[in-house]
């Protein structure tokens, strides 16, 4: 035995004593997929190898950022910018050099990590931080019939649960609170809170520097912004000042003139010129010991910061203009959004924010707590042992539980609250009825490609959905754009739902090969659909009742088909009779 093998082997003896021969053998044979190598993932990988697991693959899409080092303890300063999955695998291999730990630097939603890939593993263990990726892995595990350990943490709250097809609730059996949607006019004309201005500023960044996107809340300003940006020999500072004048001065003057909008309780906004902003250099009183990023800047600093961030996009990232999108972790886009939001707050008399607070709200960040992640990762391993022990039993009859973590003010004096695993929800549109109802504001105006992107991908979480109606493919993810290639396949991404012959009550099938998942959709036209809350023009009503409606629709189709068949038979019979008569 070499010196480096000694710690793992010595640890194994102790673990074997605790787990017993049989369970330890199951641990050593299990093949695991870990998704995510961040806060929970680092703890989890370390726990797994120290428990004796030695056949693990890990997927993570990210590289290491300096801000990860305070809690993702497998990473050191020298690792910054390297892939998390690779460094995490290297680090835990040092604890157990005999382990086979394969790393994949990539997005778990990529096709290489599809059904075939997931089917190789005995159990999948999530350590993710976003709903889309969790929904995707949930669907893959249901399709591949692999148990999934799901975990998450926010601040001092955490949760671990076990998901198994047909035995427990899946990740999507209960609707998750979706991201708050603010009424359109609040964002565009009457902001009242910092978050309204930050949402506006994020949309502005994407509008100015991202790809064309009809769903951007400021899409109607696109032509104007492009005009500022497309002058010959564009000078970034000049562009910044033009945008400033347009949005914080001229546009606000126009808004202020819309008298119906304003009252004593809601006074009209105040325009702000660039030169005027520079005179407002005073700062609000802040505690001395605060970091600069925790102090509210002056209006002059916001104005200068805004123009400087635009200038930086032109001087340092010109080639990325048209392809960028806001990220709270990207300092230039965060500068832009912080300053733009603060200037709009100044217009609307809302108290401006420090960079720190702006970043928390813009990125909906609740600071991660290392100890919660450690508890959650530990609980995942405990539940994993229960899963491995559940052979022959259904998951709900075994020892696996959902466990909630809550401290420092635990409920009923317990930091850990276990609860039994719930049965699947028969109305779940993912693992149950597989049916959802979709209300569409206008079937004539809704193009099939926009419907596939906004509704099926955006709201139902599909990755590469193909759509079928009446047995024919009406949208193929291989041909998302109109053109000769699509036409050759009989596809017209630019056609509306009406042009495809769909009406209220029509049934659509969605197949997502990327997730091994399918769903039926019942369409309904709802001209009164509230544009403020559903700016894309559709609303998904997954679950209850939709299944029955689809069944009714199917029954109706079957009845029609039977009636047609009966008619054909009757006609055939009549012909036969006639023939018979004739022949006779
Ligand atoms: N679709 C995905 N495919 C692969 N890995 C993913 C995917 N989505 C998220 N992840 C990874 O899951 C991990 C989640 O870890 P964590 O919650 O600690 O996030 P973080 O980005 O490292 O930290 P923070 O968000 O607090 O800055 C991240 O490393 C992230 O890269
Ligand atoms: Zn479900």
TrEMBL record:
Keywords: ATP-binding, Metal-binding, Nucleotide-binding, Ubl conjugation pathway, Zinc. Pfam families: ThiF, UBA_E1_SCCH. One of its GO terms (cellular component) is cytoplasm. ATP binds at residues 36-41, 60, 68-71, 84, 129-134. Zn(2+) binds at residues 170, 173, 428, 431. Pathway: Protein modification; protein sumoylation. Gene3D superfamilies: Ubiquitin activating enzymes (Uba3). Chain: B, domain 2 (1.10.10.520), Ubiquitin-activating enzyme E1, inactive adenylation domain, subdomain 1 (3.50.50.80). Residues 287-357 form the Ubiquitin-activating enzyme SCCH domain. Residues 18-394 form the THIF-type NAD/FAD binding fold domain. The active site is at 185 (glycyl thioester intermediate). One of its GO terms (biological process) is protein sumoylation. One of its GO terms (molecular function) is SUMO activating enzyme activity. Heterodimer. Belongs to the ubiquitin-activating E1 family. This is SUMO-activating enzyme subunit. It comes from Effrenium voratum.
């Amino acid at each position: 035995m070499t010196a480096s093998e000694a710690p793992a082997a010595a640890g194994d003896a102790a673990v074997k004593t605790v787990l017993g021969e049989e369970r330890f053998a199951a641990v050593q044979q299990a093949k695991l997929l870990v998704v995510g190598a961040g806060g929970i993932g680092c703890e989890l990988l370390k726990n797994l190898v120290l428990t004796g697991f030695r056949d693990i693959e890990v997927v993570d899409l990210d590289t290491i950022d300096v801000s990860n080092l305070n809690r993702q303890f497998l990473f050191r300063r020298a690792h910054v910018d390297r892939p998390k999955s690779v460094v995490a695998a290297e680090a835990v291999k040092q604890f157990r050099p005999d382990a086979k730990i394969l790393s994949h630097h990539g997005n778990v939603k990529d096709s290489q990590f599809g059904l075939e890939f997931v089917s190789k593993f005995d159990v999948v263990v999530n350590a993710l931080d976003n709903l889309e990726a969790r929904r995707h892995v949930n669907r893959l595990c249901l399709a591949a019939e692999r148990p999934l350990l799901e975990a998450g943490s926010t601040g001092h709250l955490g949760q671990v649960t076990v998901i198994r097809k047909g035995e427990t609730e899946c990740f999507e059996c209960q609707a998750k609170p979706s991201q708050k949607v603010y009424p359109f006019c609040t964002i565009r004309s009457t902001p009242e809170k910092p978050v309204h201005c930050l949402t506006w500023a994020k949309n502005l960044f994407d509008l100015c520097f991202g790809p064309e996107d009809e769903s951007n809340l400021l899409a109607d300003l696109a032509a104007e912004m492009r005009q500022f940006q497309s002058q010959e020999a564009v000078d970034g500072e000049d562009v910044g000042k033009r945008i400033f004048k347009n949005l914080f001065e001229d546009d606000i003057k126009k808004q202020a003139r819309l008298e119906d909008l304003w009252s004593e309780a809601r006074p009209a906004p105040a325009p702000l010129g660039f030169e005027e902003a520079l005179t407002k250099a005073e700062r609000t009183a802040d505690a001395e010991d605060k970091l600069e990023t925790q102090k509210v800047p002056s209006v002059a600093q916001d104005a200068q910061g805004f123009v400087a961030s635009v200038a930086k996009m032109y001087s340092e990232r010109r080639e990325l203009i048209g392809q960028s999108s806001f990220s709270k972790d990207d300092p230039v886009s965060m500068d832009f959004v912080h300053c733009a939001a603060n200037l709009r707050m100044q217009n609307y008399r809302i108290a401006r924010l420090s960079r720190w607070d702006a970043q928390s709200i813009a990125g909906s960040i609740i600071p991660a707590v290392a100890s919660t992640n450690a508890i959650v990762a530990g609980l995942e391993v405990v539940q994993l042992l229960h899963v491995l022990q559940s052979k022959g039993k259904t998951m709900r009859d075994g020892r696996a539980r959902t466990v909630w973590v809550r401290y420092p003010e635990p409920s009923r004096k317990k930091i850990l609250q276990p609860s039994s695993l719930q049965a699947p929800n028969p109305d779940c549109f993912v693992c149950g009825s597989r049916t959802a109802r979709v209300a569409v504001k206008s079937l004539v105006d809704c193009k099939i490609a926009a419907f596939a992107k906004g509704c099926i991908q955006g709201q139902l979480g599909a990755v590469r959905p193909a759509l079928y109606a009446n047995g024919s493919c009406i949208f193929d993810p291989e041909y998302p754009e109109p053109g000769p290639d699509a036409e050759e396949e009989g596809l017209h991404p630019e056609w509306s739902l009406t042009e495809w012959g769909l009406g209220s009550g029509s049934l659509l099938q969605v197949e997502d090969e990327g997730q091994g998942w399918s769903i039926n959709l019942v369409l309904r036209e709802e001209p009164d659909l509230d544009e403020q809350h559903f700016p894309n023009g559709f609303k998904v009503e997954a679950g209850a009742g939709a299944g029955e409606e689809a069944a009714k629709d199917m029954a109706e189709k079957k009845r029609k088909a039977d009636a047609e068949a009966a008619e054909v038979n009757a006609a055939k019979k009549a012909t036969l009779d006639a023939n018979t008569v004739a022949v006779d």
